[in-house]
Amino acid sequence: MSSTLPDGAPDEAPGAVPDTAPDTAPDSAPPLLSVRGLHVTFPGRRGAAAARAVDGVDLDIRRGEIVALVGESGCGKTTLARSLLGLVRPTGGRVTFDGAPLGYSARALKAYRRRAQLVLQDPSGSLNPRHTVYDIVAEGLRIHGHAGDERTAVAEALSRAGLRPPERFFLRYPHELSGGQRQRVVIAGALVLQPELLVADEPVASLDASVRGEILALLLRLRTELGLSALVVTHDLGLAWNIADRVAVMYLGRIVETGAVEQVLTAPRHPYTQALLSVLPEAPGAPVVLTGEPPDPSYIPGGCRFHVRCPVLASGEAVRAGVADACRNEELEILRGGDESQVACHWARAERPVAERAG
């Protein structure tokens, strides 16, 4: 069930960019953003069961680090990202930023959003078509009462986002721009407040393949030049390979595998991660087709939450490893928020000691 990517293969994919990222912050440094035991539950409609969209997540993002949060639609990754910005209030757990708990008063959230900004996936929907580029980028400055020179700040943000000379774009409207230029305006609107953290939700999903690499290269350059941290939410493991230092794979409200991007994407341990990787064009072998119903946060099965779709259990490999009963009945603990390699899988944990003894 192992799935590996050939050396250098992802870089040959459309939109791939070279890894120009600097070393991340030392492991001993405290994280910029820390999440512990986070839960977000939405009440069900008309007597239906509540939806546990985020069901226990620990996650750290260090200064200057890019973390990719990956998973299929419905796994809870967008809800998690929005909760990190205070857009969705958690029903349990805590979010800590720069050592201080996140407050949820209007004043506290306003101050926090100067330091943590959201980049949405659809620039056509997130940009006001009646506003000029200048007004779109300047909006954050006006909301937060910027005391400096507004024109200079807007020009610097547009220039950093790759729109040069910036004055040429001041009086343009979104419909006059290409898709890549619109996404750069969205990024400039986030940069104008000089944040420390960007949360990018599928930042290149709506762009042509020829433009994707440019935007990914821009995010890497911003990390290099400004020391920005970023959480990149995506369903695309190829994107994660190209941009991230670490990857966290999410399934049904929880992170099921995490670690350095090279380790997770070249030697995945969780069957879900292996299935996600198997559909990449560069992956060897046939794609793994998951059977069963897609994840439903209002019905979380007992035991391992992936076991009803797990090909390892269906093939009998879990029985041979002696963990089939555990897969069906024993819930796995929440993975810790550090940067070490971790997996929430009874079979993967049983297989590792065997491999170590064989080595």
Care to describe what's here?
The chain starts with 32 loop residues before the first strand and ends with a helix. The radius of gyration is 21 Å and the shape is globular. The model is unreliable at 1-26 and 354-359 (pLDDT under 50). The strands form 2 sheets. Strands 6-7-8-3-9-10-11 form a 7-stranded mixed β-sheet, sandwiched between helices. The protein has a 4-stranded antiparallel β-sheet with strand order 2-1-4-5, with helices on one face. Helix 4 (133-143) crosses helix 5 (150-160). The protein has a domain at 1-9 and 31-43 and 52-98 and 196-359: Rossmann fold (3-Layer(aba) Sandwich). It has 359 residues and is α/β, with parallel strands linked by helices. It is built from 14 helices and 11 strands. Residues 13-31 have a biased composition (Low complexity). It comes from Streptomyces coelicolor (strain ATCC BAA-471 / A3(2) / M145). One of its GO terms (molecular function) is ATP hydrolysis activity. This is Peptide transport ATP-binding protein.
Question: Which topology of one domain does CATH recognise?
Answer: Rossmann fold
Major β-sheet, in short? 7 strands, mixed
Q: Uncertain spans, ≥5 residues at pLDDT below 50?
A: 1-26, 354-359
Using the coordinates above, name the CATH class of one domain. Answer: Alpha Beta
CATH homolog superfamily of one domain: P-loop containing nucleotide triphosphate hydrolases
The neighbouring-strand order within the major sheet is: 6-7-8-3-9-10-11
* SS content category: alpha/beta
Q: Identify the CATH architecture of one domain.
A: 3-Layer(aba) Sandwich
Number of strands: 11
Separation, N- and C-terminal Cα atoms: 19 Å
Tell me, rounded to a whole number, the average pLDDT: 89
Rg on CA atoms, Å: 21 Å
- Strand-residue fraction? 15-25%
How many DSSP helices? 14
- C-alpha geometry: globular
Helix content: 25-40%
